[in-house]
Amino acid sequence: MQDYLKFYIDGQWVEPTGTRTRNVVNPATEEVAGRISLGEKEDVDRAVAAARKAFESYSRTTRDERVALLEQIGACFQARIPDLAAAMTEEMGCPVWLTEKAQIPLPLAQISSDVDVLKRFKFDEIRGNTMIRMEPIGVCGLITPWNWPVVVIITKVIPALATGCTMVLKPSEYSPLSALIIAEIMDAAKVPPGVFNLVNGDGPTVGVALSSHPDIDMVSFTGSVRAGIDVARNAAATVKRVHQELGGKSPNIIMEDANMLKAVTSGVRFIMLNSGQTCAAPSRMLAPRKRLAEVVEIARSVAENTTVGPPESGAYVGPVVNEEQWKKIQRLIDRGIEEGATLVSGGPGRPAGLEKGYYVKPTIFTDVTNDMTIAREEIFGPVLVIMGYDDVEDAIRIANDTPYGLSAYVHAGSIEKAREVGARIRAGQVYLNGDLDIRDPEAPFGGFKQSGNGRERGEHGFEAFLEVKALLGYNQA
What we know:
Strand content: 15-25%
Strand order of the largest sheet: 15-16-17-14-13-18-19
Shape: globular
Number of domains: 2
CATH class of the largest domain: Alpha Beta
Largest sheet: 7 strands, mixed
CATH topology of the largest domain: Aldehyde Dehydrogenase, Chain A, domain 1
């Protein structure tokens, strides 16, 4: 076990003002992997003051200066890949193969993409006699989750830097180790003091202090709907901008003429990816009743052949993040059985042979109706529900009958049909006829309804950190 008790403020590693600490538990072993300090309001005040002071000069840096800085961050990130991978295995039990295939490549691709966006982004535009200018919003509070820790941090930090903002990051207290390495990367890349700051802590203390702070101009939050509502309430008194990427219960519509084997297999594999801890995962599979039995059998076969085990074992599914999350998933699996859904595979308890660690059986339910708890609530575990539909109109109705609207997936025999159905789904991202592994780092990401507001990635992600100024009479002689 190692202690990580300092915070990164104003370009220095500093001692916290308080004495509270928290153990970081490896969910694969249930053993303590490290210990962090939990920040207090005074730590947030100190970090915000540093960010406010740094904003005066950093907000006036040139595009070329910021491009060079982001490129240097990318190079420093490359040098720390082994350390980042090891940290994610320790803090969240991430399978080694998933770190190599996604948890590391995705943020690397995002940095490269954001450099390209920065090079061409229009910060100024003359319209008639008016100059429309996009200016950095100011000091940003960034609150990130544990499920894709480096991905989400990079998705917020890099656009903030690219647009001339300064920031205070509060990573999840469940996955702080990789975030501390990100701070070291920022230091090695010579990000100016005060531009990037990190304070570890919990939501009720550091999260509240950030979201309610009068000198924070914008809060970008990724997490649960419940926590997102709290952030918005805390921010309301200072009328700051609040950007939220929240939960999802994404439909996966499989049309009658789709390639069933491909569509069902990829859908099951995706919901099991990262132990089901992905907000955009296709957790509701909608299949035509005429082919429902076929869909269920394919799904059963895929689930029963999905391996679960320790991160280094090569297993497809690792543990969920902690005991609290494990218990929540177990309660929802039990609720599905109680409410009359048919258990196709998996079920309550740990997989055979895994008595230690927060492992969940790859679980599939069928005979699910859209009013059941397991069809309404985000389970955030390797649990898939399969529902039958009568025709296309019925499928669209079921797909949209949710408080969420983050992502959706459509499989059809032709791209034209997939486009037609996808256009009617109320979700921020809709995947059409893909293997659910389509990657576009510039595609805007965010949700309708209770899945949040605002968008991340690409030009839309930059706009989240910018204010619009109109200079009238700009072209006067």
